Amino acid sequence: MHLLKHSRRAFLKAAAGSCACALCGGANARVLKYELLASEVESKTWVVHGRNEYFSFENGGNIVNTAFIEVPEGVVVIDTGPSKRFGEQLLDLISQKIPGKPVLRVYNTHHHPDHFLGNQVFDPQIIAAPQGVIDNIEAEGDALTDNMYRLLGDWMRGTDSVAPTQALDASQENVGGRDFSLFYLSGHTSSDFVIRDNHTGVLFSGDLLFMYRAPTTPHADIGDWRQSLAMLRDTDRDLIVPGHGPGDEKGEAIDQTLDWLDWLDGSLRDAVERGWTMNEAMQLPIPERFNSIAVGKTEFERSVVHLYQKYEDELMPAIEIVQ
To answer: Which domain holds residue 25?
Structure first.
């Protein structure tokens, strides 16, 4: 089985290496650049904002927010992006903004590929996450990486799945002279990790929060997600950096994410109770209040695929007939 898996990965990587010419007229590894820009959202705290889109060759998978923070003795990085190439360019950007200081800690907020596939650029001994995130990456990382090769082609050249080596369970961690509060939640996935910089009050929510972009649900438990949102609403913070979308000082990301999840949950429950098929459920219109939410139709259709069977199992359980 290992031989088959590695052969398949090698084939995908070889295909990725040749696809640039087919897709973009001679582009190669030297010209595929993300052109990353860092916004200083708080003192010595930078966010690299991804596009509010779905994965495509055009965006190279750059749809995620990553961040880095200068602390007294070095740098803390939060999520590493969708590819080795992204991680390399992120590290270059960090060295430009914070020259001469080492990266002391890399946090992964969860196991979705746009958040951790830049890990291999960093020292594995400084990459940390809850044990649940580590377990999820170890269980699904190779398959997720394979899918990214199919979606993004040569942007993924040389990328491998690398799990964090440091399992966290404490509520606080001091990194390089800066205290961070650590929150162990779930809902978007079975293990979601939130980090608060206690010096600036910036809260890095990972994909528990989306701003002006529809939430993704391949591993979602909406009940757990709602509980996590209630906890985040009560958490002291001065600024939220969501996993996708702009920074938020007012809690709008919480409101938007919860509103979408409530509508999604109600719509799918109603569709199942009406006896609709998945294809029929996908035809439901997106409410006008979500017009400012990017990729709403795409993510709704994906959510039907991800979640519909769960709702059918809950609302229409099999009945054993005794003869």
So the answer is: 2-249
